[in-house]
Design a protein that fits this description.
Length: 1303
């Protein structure tokens, strides 16, 4: 009778599980239960249900590829189910100590796992305990606390025994390790070793850095001395520059005072000149009054006849003068006409010769036309005779003859049309050529007329320049304009000077900012230096900055991409680490600053994984940084390294929904780190890195360009101002140097000639416009006729081809002699027509040429007549003018004889008048000079006023600048050197500074930093070595505990194995043997068994399959003795055993069922006989498993001695286990300390050296633990999704779908 209370499996409730359609309950009782049924009936599915609820082993399956295959498929003809569940119900009565094995206060506890197919056809899992939903992790935790696990050896499936019997010793040792619980130590040992490796790497890195820093400290010592010397000289230079600025300020003040003194002197001189001018004006007035008196006396003396004589003398003198000029003009006309006649005679000879040649060519063409007509007539005659002969032949020949006639008529018609169109085109071409020649002649005349008009204008300019009364106003206007320009230029000069000074200040500030930033990695100066280094070719392999080599695919992403890459845009991409090393050495030697290099051959990039890939598929995600850039494939690793798998997202809301474990940058510039840190706010003016690779390098160039531009503007304005003042002085001189000579006659004649020349230019211009219009119209007509001619020629060629084809067809049909006649006639016709066409064209062209040449000869003769007429007219005009001059000379002699009769008193008056005029003119010249001097003084005073004002502004500005620079204004008692000496002192100091060469001013700070860093490195090295020793101690202690635990458990399991094997194989012996007892983890685990009746030397490989299976089962029972469970499930473990061994296994199960529940799937009769309870599984051929009513075994079995022996063995095993020394508990094992945070000495260096942050490094989990955690998370997610599915069953859009679930 089986007695005992406690936890055991009471029933299995299934619904549509595998082959069990509908709902079915399999009751189970304490003791030994056997489940049997025919093959394929589904009896093993009950075990699958148990394992399905408990959770499958990692190395086993439920004989299904996915969860969907566990749902009842409808059998042979039924409908597949949509839902499946399996429930294990346990009795949870209190144990002897009053505690329940299942930590749930209930007599019965049910564990259910269900799968439902949703509307999309995907499976959704759910879990519940006592019908209360829970997660898979929660349910398995409750079961594990009671000793129920899906991967324990309380469940033995088909094949497990064979696997255990045939596995390698090392794998079998792994089974023992799992039982002993040493795998928990493996993870901790691995953590300690990994941390130790990282510590070793850090120690090695620190040693490298320490050595590098010490070497650098040695170099920095020299640089520091140089920098200190530079600093002292720089301070002296700054002081000297202050003194120079003060000297310049005092010099400006002195200059301003001197200008004021000069202005006072000029004002005093100007007042003196004003007084003298007033006195001279009075004297000139006296001369004018005396001149009036003398003139009145002369007028009284010279009565009416005398005055008439004098007027006539003046008139004749003017007549003689103008007559000579006009004779000179007519002589020029005669010379020009003779030259034109010579040219016309030459052209006439050429035209006559061309006409003679054209007549000869025309006669030749006419002769050729006559010959062609004769040939055509002969060909027509021969062809007509041949065709008449053919006409009398057959009908086909007549048809061919008729077609030839039609083709000939068409060709003749087209020939006439083409000839007429060619004639029209040639005529139009000749007219167009005539119009072109006429236009060319008119344009030549227009050009000559224009030149003549321009000569007249130049002559007029000379005359106007000689006429002071006419030019004085113009010159005065010019003077006023120049003075106005002078004023404007003075303002421009002051503005340009201010801009120039402002630009210089901005440049100085920018250089100071650059000098302060030059030590930062990737600074503008460093990038510029490396860019020049690359261009020079001194170091090959520098590809450029990342910002230069990559561009955004979409410009709207540029800002976000720049923020995502950050200072990575300034990183220098090089081909390999050797190039990077050379560049770093070069920067160190040349003081070029610091830079970050990305060697393409050493970069290690991590591909996006896990959550990053999931987030990347979500809405609102623009994409990865490296996917949004255009770049060469060669630098892909560098782009991905700098991008750090950063995602660009649309907005902050999208980023917040996806936060955690992913680095994101929004399009408006907010940065969300993977740790959760968020950076953002309003946009600020950034001078940081950007695409294009220039960074801030253009700032200095911009300010330098501004200084250059301002300097050029200032110099240009200053030069223009000087030129204006020179021109102003010249104008003043010209104005005061004008005389009162009278050239009115020449001016009047010049105006008349100019009007005549302008009128001629206008007339010829109108003719040119009209001729050009006529030429353009004729050209359009000619082009139109050319198109028509080309069309008619095409029609003629087509008709000729048709006639030729017709003639050839007729020739081929006719007899040979007629065919030969036709062919000869055809050739003659073709040649004659070609000759006729060319002759016609030649005749037409010749006639037109003759007509043109005749017109040309006529035009030459007409032009010649015109020139001869002009010459004749000019000669007549000269004769008339000469006669008038001779007559005027004769009259002038007589009038002068009459005027000589005046008395001596008139001569005296004339002499007095001349003296007065000379003195008055001399005085007026002196007054003019005084006026000019006064005007010059006034201008100079005005100029000085402006200069003093400007200088005063400049002095005030300099004073403000000095105060803003905290430079005191020099007082009168301060002794200052002259500017030259101050500049010399500054230049001397600047030369001394320049002789120092490139000085690393950061060397002072860097030296102190290096000293501090070496101290930090030594301190951190000591800390790391202590941590290394600590980790070695922990690892050794863990290894020792791990080994102790394994050997202790091995001893107990080995004793159990020996006892169980002896029970299963009476008179046999068996034990477990470690291959390496000193270090059991380097060897395997052997089952040394000697079955009954075999030698002790028998090797395991010589054992039969059944003997190996018995040994494996003994091993399983030995493990179960070490890890007891409330129930055990065996699935056909006796299938490979003979009846005797099967009975031994069944007997042992029955004996052990006194203290635990045993469930065995078996087909062995002996097992069924020994079982306390029986369950049968069958099916009716429809694919649906059914349970048979429980039946009792046929007869009880008296176990007798075997039961007693088993009880003794159990007690011995328990006693040994109780006597075992207390094993180290895994939860109490020494733990690896938390990894050290980033060491101070490695801060900022570790990243550039490629060292991972120890604190942020992740341990790679073993594949097994990763699989287990993945399954747990998957099942938890499934459970949560199932809950959501139940709440929102009819909201398909929100139903969480799980595409596939691997068991």
């Amino acid at each position: 009778m089986i007695t005992g209370d406690g936890m055991h499996l009471t029933r299995i409730e299934l619904e549509n599980f595998k082959s069990f359609g509908g709902k079915i309950t399999i009751p189970l009782e304490e003791g030994f239960t056997a489940i049997t049924g025919p093959n394929g009936s589904g009896k093993s599915n009950s075990g699958d249900a148990i394992q399905f609820v408990l959770g499958p082993k990692s190395t086993r399956t439920l004989r299904a590829s996915n969860v969907t295959e566990l749902i009842f498929n409808g059998g042979g003809s039924g409908k597949p189910a949509k839902y499946m569940s399996a429930t294990l119900v346990f009795s949870n009565t209190p144990e002897a100590d009053g505690r329940r094995r299942l930590r749930i206060d209930s007599q019965e506890v049910s564990f259910t796992r269900a799968v439902k197919i949703n509307r999309k056809g995907d499976p959704v899992s759910s879990y519940s305990v006592n019908e209360n939903p829970c997660t898979a992790t929660e349910m398995r935790r409750i079961l594990a606390e009671a000793g129920l696990r899906g991967d324990g050896y309380n469940i033995v499936l088909q094949g497990d025994v064979t696997t255990l019997a045939t596995m390698t010793p090392h794998k079998r040792r792994g089974v023992l390790e799992e039982v002993a619980g040493v795998t928990a130590y493996d993870e901790e040992i691995r953590k300690a070793n990994n941390q130790r490796k990282k510590v070793d790497n850090s120690i090695e890195t620190i040693e490298i850095f320490e050595e590098d820093q010490k070497s650098r400290l040695k170099d920095l010592g020299k640089e520091r001395e140089q920098a200190l010397k530079f600093k002292d000289l720089k301070e002296d230079l700054d002081k000297s520059k202050i003194i120079l600025q003060q000297s310049r300020f005092r010099n400006k003040v002195d200059e301003l005072r001197l200008l004021g003194d000069e202005r006072s002197r000029y004002i005093e001189d100007k007042d003196k000149l004003a007084s003298e001018l007033s006195e001279n004006a009075r004297i000139i007035n006296d001369y004018d009054e005396e001149m009036v008196k003398v003139s009145n006396s002369l007028d009284e003396m010279l009565g009416g006849d005398a005055r008439k004589i004098l007027d006539k003398i003046r008139e004749f003198e003017i007549l003689i003068e103008t007559g000579g000029d006009r004779i000179g003009d007519q002589q020029k006309k005669i010379e020009f006409g003779n030259d034109e006649i010579k040219i016309l005679n030459s052209e006439s000879i050429k035209a006559e010769k061309a006409r003679s040649d054209a007549e000869n060519k025309l006669n030749d063409a006419k002769k050729a036309l006559i010959e062609a007509d004769k040939s055509l007539k002969l060909a027509d005659k021969n062809e007509k005779e041949a065709r008449e002969a053919i006409q009398s032949g057959d009908k086909h020949g007549q048809d061919l003859n008729r077609k030839l006639g039609q083709a000939t008529e068409a060709e003749n018609a087209n020939q006439s049309v083409y000839a007429q169109s060619q004639l029209d085109y040639d005529r139009a071409e000749q007219q167009c050529q005539l119009a072109l020649d006429k236009l060319a002649d008119l344009e030549t005349e227009y050009e000559n007329a224009t030149l003549d008009r321009d000569d007249q204008e130049l002559m007029g300019e000379d005359l106007q320049g000689e006429n002071p009364t006419f030019d004085r106003t113009t010159l005065a206007d010019d003077l006023r304009k120049i003075q106005k320009q002078d004023k404007l230029l003075c303002g421009d000069r002051d503005s340009a000077e201010i801009k120039f000074r402002n630009a210089e200040r901005e440049l100085a500030k920018a250089r100071a900012r650059q000098e302060a930033k030059s030590s930062r990695p990737g600074s503008a100066s460093t990038i510029a230096a490396l860019s020049k280094l690359r261009q020079s070719g001194e170091i090959n392999g520098i590809l450029g900055t990342l910002g230069e080599l990559a561009t955004p695919k979409d410009t709207k992403h540029e800002s976000a991409l720049a923020l995502a890459l950050g200072n990575g845009l300034r990183s220098i991409i090089v081909k390999d680490d050797d190039v990077a090393s050379q560049c770093i050495s070069w920067l160190r030697k040349n003081g070029g600053g610091r830079a970050t290099f990305l060697p393409l051959n050493k970069l290690i990039t991590n591909r996006p994984q896990g959550r990053t890939l999931i987030v990347a598929r979500n809405p609102g995600i623009v994409g990865f940084v490296h996917d949004l850039l255009d770049y060469d494939f060669e630098i892909e690793n560098a782009i991905k390294y700098a991008g750090r798998n950063t995602l660009i997202v649309d907005s902050m809301n999208i980023a917040r929904k996806n936060m955690g474990g992913v680095r994101m940058v929004t399009l408006d510039g907010a940065v969300i780190e993977s740790s959760g840190a968020m950076t953002g706010g309003s946009e600020v003016r950034r001078d940081g890195p950007s695409f294009g690779g220039n960074g801030n390098i253009s700032n200095i160039e911009k300010y330098e360009s501004a200084v250059d531009s301002a300097s050029i503007v200032y110099a240009t304005v200053e030069a223009a101002l000087k030129e204006i003042r020179i021109n102003e002085q010249e104008l003043r001189s010209r104005i005061h140097g004008l005389d009162d000579s009278d050239h009115s006659v020449r001016v009047r004649n010049w105006k008349a000639d100019l009007d005549r020349s302008q009128k001629l230019v206008n007339e010829i211009g109108k003719k040119v416009v009209s001729a050009r219009k006529d030429y353009e119209n004729l050209e359009k007509i000619m082009n139109k006729l050319l198109t028509t001619c080309e069309i008619n020629l095409k029609l003629l060629e087509d008709s000729t081809k048709i006639r030729h084809d017709a003639a050839e067809n007729l020739q081929n049909h006719t007899p040979d002699h007629l065919s030969e006649i036709l062919r000869s006639a055809e050739l003659t016709r073709t040649e004659a027509e070609r000759s006729r066409l060319s002759s016609d064209a030649a005749i037409i062209t010749g006639n037109q040429t003759l007509s043109i040449l005749a017109e040309r000869v006529s035009e030459i003769l007409r032009q010649k007549d015109i020139q001869e007429s002009i010459i004749s007219k000019a000669e007549g005009e000269i004769l008339d003018l000469q006669n008038s001059i001779d007559k005027a000379d004769f009259e002038l002699v007589e009038l002068k004889e009459q005027s000589s009769q005046f008395d001596e008193e008139q001569q005296t008056l004339n002499d007095r008048r001349d003296i007065i005029m000379e003195e008055r003119a001399s005085l007026r010249a002196h007054v003019g000079k005084l006026s000019q001097d006064r005007q010059t003084l006034s201008s100079r005073v005005t100029e000085l006023n402006s200069t003093i004002q400007q200088k005063g502004i400049i002095v005030n500005e300099i004073a403000v600048e000095l105060k803003s620079a905290n430079i005191s204004l020099p007082t009168g008692d301060i002794q200052l050197p002259i500017i030259a000496e101050a500049e010399k002192g500054v230049q001397s100091l600047e030369r001394r500074l320049a002789n120092l060469g490139d000085v690393n001013m950061l060397a002072i700070e860097q030296y102190d930093i290096a000293v501090e860093r070496i101290s930090d490195l030594i301190s951190d090295g000591k800390l790391l070595r202590e941590r290394k020793n600590q980790l070695i101690s922990i690892a050794d202690q863990l290894e020792e505990e791990r080994k102790t635990r394994l050997l202790t458990v091995f001893t107990h399991v080995n004793n159990n194995f020996s006892r169980v094997y002896e029970i299963l194989q009476p008179s046999g012996q068996g034990n477990l043997r470690l291959e390496n007892m000193k270090n059991p983890f380097e060897g395997g685990l052997e089952m040394a068994c000697v079955p009954p009746g075999k030698s002790r030397n028998t090797r395991r490989t010589a054992l039969s399959g059944g003997e190996k299976s018995m040994a494996a089962l003994a091993f399983i029972f030995a493990i179960q003795d070490y890890e007891p469970s409330p129930f055990y499930y065996f699935d056909e473990v006796d299938q490979n055993l003979d009846p005797f061994n099967s009975e031994r296994i069944a007997t042992l199960c029955r004996m052990r069922s006194q203290r635990a529940q045993f469930i065995m799937v078996t087909l062995r009769k002996v097992s069924l006989i020994l079982a306390d309870h029986h369950i049968g599984i069958t099916h009716a051929g429809d694919g649906c498993s059914r349970k048979i009513t429980d039946f009792d075994r046929a007869a009880a079995l008296d176990l007798g001695d075997d039961l007693e022996a088993e009880e003794l063995a159990r007690k011995a095993s328990q006693a040994e286990k109780d006597a075992m020394p207390e094993l180290p508990k895994a939860e109490n094992m020494p733990r690896s300390p938390e990894p050290l945070s980033t060491l101070k000495s490695l801060s900022g260096l570790s990243e550039r050296a490629g060292i991972e942050d120890i604190k942020n490094s992740k341990q790679d989990p073993s594949l097994e633990s990763l699989r287990v955690r993945t399954e747990d998370y998957t099942e938890e997610i499934e459970a949560q999704e199932n809950d959501i599915s139940k709440e929102q069953e009819y909201e398909e859009i929100n139903t969480i779908e799980i595409k596939s679930e691997e068991v």
